[in-house]
């Protein structure tokens, strides 16, 4: 039996320090079938596109004049792919030699498997580690998270099994599944631009009856967040766009029955999320702006929601099992919410008193210094007059 064709699609944007490591690992795979490499260059200005053309002539390059974002660029690559499977890669990932072989083996285990996630480790300073980056996506309470992230691999992730979806850094998709779940001519939602697009695609696929298998035998190494590192503005955009896209994905994919059944828990969880202290750029202001952005774009999402909800092929119990609302202790969360509200009220009052005290003390400090200056001048003048008088007497 002939081996299936795999299209390896890489979106590059100023990836000069990392793209060669990624491509070298692709071109040294032990997969016996046909591997076709497509690089979508998002208007790079660092010479990486020219380097790829020169060093990897076998790679097909789709050069764009500007940065299209992750979703649109990968859609371009998928449309150009004439293959059985699409392996989508970030440019900052390095594959082990058998990665593609193991991924293809996993996706062929059952006909309803349309997505596969491998075991991704952290790549730190160019060196592989045994710290997990992702073993797939989980979705507790509609919050996506990489399974196992930052945990040391001690064999606890060696069990193959089904997960919600694959991490967007290195997922393998059946081309048949991608054609089945696309809306219009979009596989990834191009309104998302960047972030959460992999969650949305996995959600749509799950609703249509496609499953995602995690295989621990396909290993790779990933530098997470390379395009937004050391840049506060980029990180701020990451949080704002990411949470906007999260609300859009929820609006598109949550069924009406599921929303009604879990309405109180959803509202409770979202309120707690908003009240919880965030670090760095992810402030409550950013979350509120993201919610406002999502609300303003609701009309764009509405026709997509209609298309998705018409074609649901799984039970509410099956899809609901990924979100774990049954495990949420409602009263414990309600108590936490009340306690957090009281704590914040107390903290606000305490903060207000301290600010008032600061202003009062600062006011008296300034008055004291002004008084010192006002007294110092006549004293100095009096001393000068006394000295002058003594000189005249003598």
Alpha carbon gap, first and last residue: 123 Å
Radius of gyration: 29 Å
What ranges have pLDDT less than 50 throughout 5 or more consecutive residues?
Answer: none
The best one-word shape is elongated
How would you classify the quaternary structure?
single chain
Quick one: CATH class of the largest domain? Alpha Beta
CATH superfamily of the largest domain: Spore Coat Polysaccharide Biosynthesis Protein SpsA, Chain A
CATH fold node name of the largest domain: Spore Coat Polysaccharide Biosynthesis Protein SpsA, Chain A
H/E element string?
EHEHEHEEHEEEEEEHHEHHHHHHH
Strand residues, percent: 15-25%
Mean pLDDT: 89
How many extended strands?
A: 12
Q: What about the largest sheet?
A: 10 strands, mixed
CATH architecture term of the largest domain: Alpha-Beta Complex
Tally of domains? 3
**How many DSSP H or I helices?**
13
Which structural class fits the helix and strand makeup?
alpha/beta
Name the helicity range. 40-55%
How would you sum up this structure, described in words?
By secondary structure, the protein is an alpha/beta fold. It folds into 3 domains: 6-228, Spore Coat Polysaccharide Biosynthesis Protein SpsA, Chain A; 232-330, no CATH class; 331-394. The protein is 49% helix and 18% strand. It is built from 13 helices and 12 strands. Strands 1, 2, 3, 4, 5, 6, 7, 10, 11 and 12 form a 10-stranded mixed beta sheet that branches. β2, α2 and β3 (60-64) form a beta-alpha-beta unit. It is elongated and about 115 Å long.
């Amino acid at each position: 039996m002939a081996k299936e064709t795999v299209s390896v699609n890489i979106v590059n944007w100023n990836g000069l320090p990392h793209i060669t490591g990624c491509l070298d690992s692709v071109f040294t795979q032990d997969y016996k079938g046909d591997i076709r490499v497509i690089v979508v260059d998002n208007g790079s200005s660092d010479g990486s596109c020219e380097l790829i053309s020169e060093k990897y002539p076998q790679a097909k390059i789709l050069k764009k004049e500007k940065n299209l974002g992750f979703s649109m660029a990968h859609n371009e690559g998928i449309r150009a792919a004439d293959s059985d499977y699409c392996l989508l890669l970030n440019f900052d990932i390095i594959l082990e030699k058998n990665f593609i072989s193991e991924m293809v083996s996993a996706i062929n285990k059952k006909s309803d498997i349309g997505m596969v996630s491998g075991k991704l480790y952290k790549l730190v300073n160019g060196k592989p580690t045994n710290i997990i980056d992702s073993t797939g996506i989980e979705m507790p309470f509609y919050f996506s998270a990489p399974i196992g992230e930052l945990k040391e691999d001690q064999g606890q992730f060696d069990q193959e099994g089904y997960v919600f979806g694959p991490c967007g850094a290195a997922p393998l998709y059946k081309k048949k599944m991608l054609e089945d779940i696309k809306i219009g001519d979009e596989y990834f939602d191009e309104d998302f631009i960047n972030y959460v697009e992999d969650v949305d695609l996995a959600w749509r696929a799950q609703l249509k009856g496609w499953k995602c298998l995690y295989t621990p035998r396909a290993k790779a190494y990933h530098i997470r967040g390379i395009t937004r590192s050391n840049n506060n503005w980029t990180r701020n955009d990451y949080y704002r766009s990411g949470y906007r896209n999260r609300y859009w994905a929820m609006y598109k994919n949550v069924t009406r029955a599921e929303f009604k059944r879990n309405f109180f828990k959803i509202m409770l969880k979202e309120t707690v999320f908003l009240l919880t202290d965030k670090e760095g750029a992810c402030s409550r202001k950013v979350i509120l702006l993201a919610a406002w952005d999502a609300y303003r774009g609701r009309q764009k999402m509405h026709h997509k929601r209609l298309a998705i909800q018409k074609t649901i092929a799984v039970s509410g119990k099956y899809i609901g099992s990924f979100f774990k609302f049954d495990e949420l202790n409602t009263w414990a969360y309600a108590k936490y919410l009340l306690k957090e509200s009281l704590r914040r009220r107390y903290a606000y009052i305490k903060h207000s008193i301290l600010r008032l005290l600061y202003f009062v003390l600062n006011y008296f400090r300034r008055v004291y210094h002004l008084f010192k200056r006002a007294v110092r001048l006549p004293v100095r003048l009096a001393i000068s007059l006394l000295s002058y008088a003594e000189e005249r007497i003598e």
